[in-house]
Specification:
mainly alpha; three-stranded mixed sheet; three-stranded antiparallel sheet; 8 strands; elongated
Amino acid sequence: MATMRGEPDPKPPLSSSPASQTHVRVNSRRGANAIHPVDIPTPPPAATASPVVFREVKHFRRWVPWLVPTFVVANTVMFIITMYVNDCPKNSVSCIARFLGRFSFQPLKENPLLGPSSSALQKMGALEVSRVVDRHRVWLLVTCIWLHGGVFHLLANMLSLLVIGIRLEQEFGFVRIGLLYIISGLGGSLLSALFLKSNISVGASGALFGLLGGMLSELIINWSIYTNKVAAFVTLLSIIVLNLAVGILPHVDNFAHIGGFLSGFFLGFIFLIRPQFGWVSQRYAPPGSLTTSAISKFKKYQCVLWISSLIIFIVGFTAALVLLLRGFDANDHCSWCHYLSCVPTSRWSCNSNLGYCTSTQLGSQLNLTCSTNGKSSTYTFLDATASQIQGLCSQLCS
């Protein structure tokens, strides 16, 4: 959305006793929703023209974005390292773009996103519920948001992060947006782990949906300072619903999207609250200016939303973490919730459980049989490694 900046009023014509003016310059996004500057009159000075003075309010200052581009670089570097670890020519029979050497991609049948194998992602820290619950590797809830399943996955998420994240960091700074991004990603991982027990999960989508949720709650909690707010609300809500609807396709972890969105929505009320303009006018009024009764920094509805969101987030986040570590399976208590992540149709199936294979090695002949679909195949391998067998099994069962 376009950046919105309060513009100064035109300079008044000179008269015999002109008054100097001080304007509070503020910055905000949503181009159509103009926020008008706050005029703060001062006592009449001597009969000489005084220039218009602009003061930038720290609550509405514009920040230079650097954290979001850093996140993009970090995600890209992690993908390159993952492809190096993957080493397709060594661990698979066939590869795509073999001229890239160990950076070549797994076959499209195994990974249609042009990326590494599942085993490589597991080595790099993909979210696997069994390892979190049984081995207490809680850090996997965070490491998975820095990994991506392929080139297409990485490009889609990083372009979205640049479009959404830079605007938010310009408006609210790197601290609040950084916390919003990381915690939302963690919230997405938590909800995903409560529902998806057999698959691994990677990607920054939960954190991205957290930024969208934060944008929505920021509009709500700062409702009084925007014009054309209804149109902005409907537009933003439509974008969110459309993106969540894409999550019903197979191989897309929509629970991470939903968890990230809910986390970002409540965190937006906490991190992105702004003071009302009446308080800003009094706070930055020049000495000697006439003021009315003191105005509170935040409106009552803002305080109610802030407190209630803080309580809901802390309780919900803590409960989800405790349930996960106790091995709680949310599917046992919600028989229809799996449709939130994938809706089966005649064109695709939602059965994406990992396949397992039985193997027999006779000389240089390796025979694999997939336990999921019953397919068998023979490969020419001498002393195949475990990673090679797992990669071949993934292709056979896909």
